[in-house]
């Protein structure tokens, strides 16, 4: 093996040191950029999660429409027969109340498609 002078060895080590220093600076900059990107992405994820929760509440949340059970429908049918035509006195005329329409009655009016 050939003898390398100490000056050449020092120059070689300095060149390696500069190369490694440049690589470290580049990696430090990349790490900084990636950390900033992570912070931005976490903000975007939080906004998207909130949007998803809002849509889930709108889509799957409790509804103001409550469907009556069959027992309630039969009770309402019996009550509706008694309430069919009532009159109330209003200042200028008499108003006739009509009974409420229930789902079963509405379904009767829908024509069945021939299958």
UniProtKB/TrEMBL annotation:
Where does this protein have compositionally biased stretches of type Acidic residues?
68-81
Region Disordered: start and end of each range?
Answer: 62-96
Keywords from UniProt, A to Z, are:
Coiled coil, DNA-binding, Homeobox
Q: Which Pfam families match?
A: LZ_Tnp_IS66
Any GO molecular function = DNA binding
Classification lineage: Bacteria, Bacillati, Bacillota, Clostridia, Lachnospirales
UniProt domain Transposase TnpC homeodomain: residue ranges = 47-111
Q: From which organism does this entry originate?
A: Anaerobutyricum hallii
Q: What is this protein called?
A: Transposase C of IS166 homeodomain
Is the keyword Coiled coil in the record? yes
Coiled-coil residues: 17-58
């Amino acid at each position: 093996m050939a003898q390398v002078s100490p000056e050449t060895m020092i120059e070689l080590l300095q060149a390696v040191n500069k190369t490694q220093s440049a690589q470290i600076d580049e990696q430090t900059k990349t790490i900084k950029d990636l950390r900033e990107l992570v912070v931005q992405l976490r903000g975007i994820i939080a906004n998207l999660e909130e949007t998803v929760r809002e849509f889930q509440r709108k889509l799957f949340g409790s509804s103001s429409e409550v469907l009556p059970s069959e027992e309630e429908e039969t009770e309402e049918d019996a009550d509706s027969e008694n309430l069919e035509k009532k009159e109330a006195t209003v200042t200028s005329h008499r108003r006739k109340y009509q009974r409420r329409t229930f789902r079963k009655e509405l379904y009767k009016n829908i024509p069945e498609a021939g299958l």
